[in-house]
């Protein structure tokens, strides 16, 4: 049977496929907020039912946090594991959404139809591209393609705390020949992209404690240590005037961008002006001496993700608060070691505390090194050809600024290489209000997986 | 009739007087939050009823915000105006309160009995000392003392937006011979204090806008301008390494502390170690070269009262937020001009904005200069003697770190000097969780006003 029949079936299925995705998007499976625990269970149950319907032997597997979904189809050829995550980011600030985030809809935009809603791009829409490829394949060929394991998690947006123990406990079941991961974006619209390197991540959060209690800024303003001011000084000390992180030893393990990478990336279709413009920026604000693409793909960062203390309500309050709080993430590249970096960051902060101040660290936050793929595997070339056929444009091996720790753990725990192919676009507003996924991404994504499976499945 | 009879009556009335105060404390008259508008009305109504019961001709006077209370008693002698405010500060963070803030109670502490609850010290307990002095006077003498005007406002904790228009519109009614203000504290427990100078205040709030939307820290971390980082840098630039405010021209109009002030203040009973220790501090953190008392009373400040942006919820969110927010107050001394200072502060901030960032200023926030009293008036000496008699300790003329703009406006609009006497203590936790007022302050405060009225009323 020719691949064309499967592709045609994907085209015919699109309306029904979109409705299936909408059903999944209506489940508010926010993993980081315990209030949505039951919704995460519901999303896992829905996927088990969907996979069972497709002919997989599918199970929900309990975890201390949110459950995993594991499904198997025995077949010929290499054992391919497909990974995605069904959990989504929080939706605040809710006021900036143009529609309720969990009431998805198709919208017409200047760039074509989009599916609007939280999780449409990250990662429910992406993972459904693979299931829709499987569905069409089954409908045309009477069986699922090759030898497949499906592995979905529900804690990707909250640091995957259950993932490592689960992989150790289920090593033999999950250690396949190659992982396929659909959680990345295209370098620019219409340019099929395979991720060759991903940044790692270190998460930190601390509270700076100053006065014993909140103080009146008249009675104590002047003599009092102000935690908001002290925290601001510490944050300001994290970078030098060139945008470089000023923590001692921060860049240990970083690999400079090679001439070959610069050459490849110059021709990958990345539109720096459009990328910056989408975010309302006219220049790249990172380390001087690096392009926006290099700053995003190949350079480490230290970002403040949350900062708060004192009075935030209506009007004014003359308070000097007892505490100030900050959430930090660092993006890691090359061989940077998260545990070592955590020590350096904490030492930097603690060396800058004034007398009468102390700091308490959140001890529940994780980290993962960067992941650098073995792009010499033959499946990489097969996927490049499949993607080039579908998108009528040569596929490129790119870097990725985001962190997908799973790729690192697949290699370190399961000894499994990964092939990362995704169809998201940079304007999808993932993690932001009004997240969307292009219908074109959803449709051609499913077609792309069918073509890839046609080349690498048994 | 001797003053002793009035003082004895105050002693006898204490249990009933405390219950009257508790009734007022149960009304959550938070002026800065529109949700409590009806409660502010209720507090004003309660005071009108109380004043009417005392024999005053009392009225609630409407205002665009919360109403004023004005009451008159015609009598002999100079027309004395007594001022207080019935509104209170917000109560957050509520979790730090040991009891519901608007369910007041008497508590036994190591330092004696206290009345615990929001507003107990600032200012409901203080204003009730005057009404209880009037009540005992009336009960003993059959009439209220002298020639009295009572003037209560309900917007003191939210910048008194209606105050200036109201004073202009009711100039003749309010322009008395002298104002008595009870909204200050004693320099140390048991040391009766008259405030000779009060710091002014300038309020500011701004939002720093960076990216057009919230961004993903993987896709944009590095190239993106991070408003939390930029705001922290601006805040860090407000002070130099010696604790001095680094805004150009900030100290214009400041008067250096005189040798005579230093001499007086050295003997005013201020316990620097206890003052700092109460706040959990071991050193004064303000401008180098000034004592804690000078930093509090005679030096201007710039304090951060609120700071926020990005994700504050449970867990981690890899976001670069579009905005960051800060609330600022400056305390002013000498001849510092709030309008001029506002221009300088804004210029300082705007000169430090990176490309692609902009700032929007809250335009609703007010300012008031410092107030320096005419302590040569004979009522000051009379009050000093009355207070010294009551507290068995020489009363002192002190500075005050807090801002009571009313004293400035009484002079500038009504041409009226003010005598500021208060019985609060520095450990009253005003504006903080677990606010209290010593029963001793409440009791001896009423006795003090009776003695002062005995000397200066007709």
Descriptive report:
Chain A has helices at 3-25, 37-54, 124-141, 163-169, 171-174, 227-236, 259-266, 272-278, 292-297, 338-350, 378-391, 405-414, 439-456, and strands spanning 57-61, 68-73, 79-85, 105-109, 112-116, 147-153, 178-181, 193-198, 200-209, 215-216, 301-310, 319-320, 323-332, 358-361, 367-368, 371-372, 396-400, 418-421, 436-438. Chain A has 458 residues and is α+β, with helices and mostly antiparallel strands. The model of chain A has no long low-confidence stretch (mean pLDDT 95). At the A-B interface, β9, β10, α6, α8 and α9 of A face β9, β10, α6, α8 and α9 of B. β11 (301-310) of chain A pairs antiparallel with β11 (301-310) of chain B. Chains A, B: Pfam families: M20_dimer (PF07687), Peptidase_M20 (PF01546). Chains A, B: Keywords: Hydrolase, Metal-binding, Protease. Chains A, B: Residues 207-355 form the Peptidase M20 dimerisation domain.
């Amino acid at each position: 049977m020719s691949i064309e029949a499967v592709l045609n079936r994907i085209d015919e299925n699109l309306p029904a496929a979109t409705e299936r995705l909408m059903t999944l998007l209506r489940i508010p499976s926010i993993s980081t907020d315990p209030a949505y625990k039951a919704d995460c269970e519901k999303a896992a149950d829905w996927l088990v039912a969907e996979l069972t319907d497709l002919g997989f032997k599918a199970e929900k597997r309990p975890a201390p946090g949110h459950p995993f979904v594991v499904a198997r189809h025995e077949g010929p050829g290499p054992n391919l594991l497909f990974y995605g995550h069904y959990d989504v980011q929080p939706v605040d600030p809710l006021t900036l959404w143009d529609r309720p985030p969990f009431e998805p809809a198709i919208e017409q935009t200047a760039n074509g139809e989009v599916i609007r809603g939280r999780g449409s791009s990250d990662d429910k829409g992406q993972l459904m591209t693979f299931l829709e490829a499987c569905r069409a394949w089954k409908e045309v060929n009477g069986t699922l393609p090759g030898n497949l394991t499906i592995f979905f998690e529900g804690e990707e947006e909250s640091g995957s705390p259950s993932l490592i123990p689960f992989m150790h406990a289920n090593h033999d079941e999950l250690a396949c020949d190659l992982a396929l991961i659909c959680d990345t974006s295209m370098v620019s619209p219409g340019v099929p992209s395979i991720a060759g390197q991903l940044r790692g991540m270190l998460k930190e959060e601390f509270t700076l404690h100053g006065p014993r209690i909140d103080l009146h800024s008249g009675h104590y303003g002047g003599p009092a240590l102000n935690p908001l001011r002290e925290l601001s000084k510490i944050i300001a000390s994290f970078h030098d005037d060139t945008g470089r992180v000023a923590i001692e030893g921060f860049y240990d393990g970083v690999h400079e961008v090679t001439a070959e990478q610069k050459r490849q990336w110059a021709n990958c279709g990345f539109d720096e002006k459009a990328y910056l413009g989408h975010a309302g920026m006219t220049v790249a604000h990172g380390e001087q001496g690096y392009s926006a693409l290099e700053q995003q793909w190949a350079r480490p960062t230290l970002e403040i993700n949350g900062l708060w203390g004192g009075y935030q309500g209506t009007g004014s309050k003359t308070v000097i608060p007892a505490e100030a709080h900050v959430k930090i993430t660092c993006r890691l590249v090359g061989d940077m070691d998260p545990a070592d970096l955590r020590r350096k960051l904490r030492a930097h902060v603690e060396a800058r505390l004034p007398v009468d101040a102390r700091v308490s660290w959140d001890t529940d936050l994780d980290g993962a090194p960067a992941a650098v793929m073995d792009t010499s595997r033959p499946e990489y070339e097969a996927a490049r050809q499949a993607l080039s056929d579908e998108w009528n444009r040569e596929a490129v091996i790119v870097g990725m600024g985001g962190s997908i720790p799973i790729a690192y753990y697949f290699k370190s725990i399961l000894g499994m290489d990964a092939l990362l192919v995704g169809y998201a676009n940079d304007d999808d507003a993932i993690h932001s209000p009004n997240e969307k996924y292009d219908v074109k991404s959803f449709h051609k994504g499913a077609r792309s997986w069918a073509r890839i499976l046609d080349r690498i499945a048994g």
